[in-house]
Every structure is written in structure tokens, then in C-alpha cells.
Amino acid sequence: MPNLYPTFEVPPIVEQQQTEPAPKYGKSWLFDFAKGDFVVDGAGRVVQADGHTAWVQWCVKTVLTQRFAYVIYSFNYGTELEEALRQPARKAVEAELERAITEALLADPRTEMVRDFAFDWQGDEVTVAFTAVPVIGPPERLEVKING
Q: Domains of the chain, with CATH numbers?
């Protein structure tokens, strides 16, 4: 008796590789965090930062901005610094700062990873050092002072 159900070879499934376009590194104005103002040249014009430097400045500003504190920023901008600093012990503060900073910086598609955290306490003030690795360009070692 012949088989009522036909048989055939199943063709292999070819998965399309979906490549995301590389993130764009726009330009920005160069900011001096120590002075709290934009950098100006001898002619009084604001100096423009290249794309990589603009990303580095974005990283520092994101870490220093309290998340949800300013209506102008989206919900995924900033770091939960106050929540981290309320932890009962320094090791808990450090762990929470590492988590919050990593989460904040990975919200930007230009950031590939954040690693190598180090903490230096001077009284209630902590200096957090970490390496931010961009998708394009060299990693940057950043330091941010946070008052507790």
C-alpha cells in the first residue's frame, strides 16, 4: 500500500544577519567640569568637541545627574546617586554605585561596557573611577567625585 503522507527534504533555514548601524557620534561643545562652564578659545568662541570627546562628556554628565530629578531629561537618563548613597555600609554603597553607573551608561547605544570600578573615600566624599568602553573608539578611564 502506498504511503498516504508524502515525504520530502526540509530545506535548511537561512537566518538573515541583521546588523544594526553603528551609532553616530555627534559633535558637542567642550565643557570644563572643574570650572562648570564651556571652554572658549582666545576669540571668545565656544570650542567644539569631537564625537568621542562628546561621548566621554556625556558619560560624566550622566553619572553626575540625579535620575528623575529634572523634567527635561528622559526617564532613562541619569544615575540613582541618592538611593546608592543611602545604603547602610560603604561596601553596599559601592556595589549600588557600580550597578547604577553601569545601568545609566549602558542606556546609550554608544556604550559597549563599563568595567574596572575603584572607589576612594575621603570622609563622606567618594571618588569613583571606572573604565567606559565605547562601541567605536578607545576605552576611557573616568573619575567622578560624589558627595555623600
A: 28-147 (3.10.450.40)
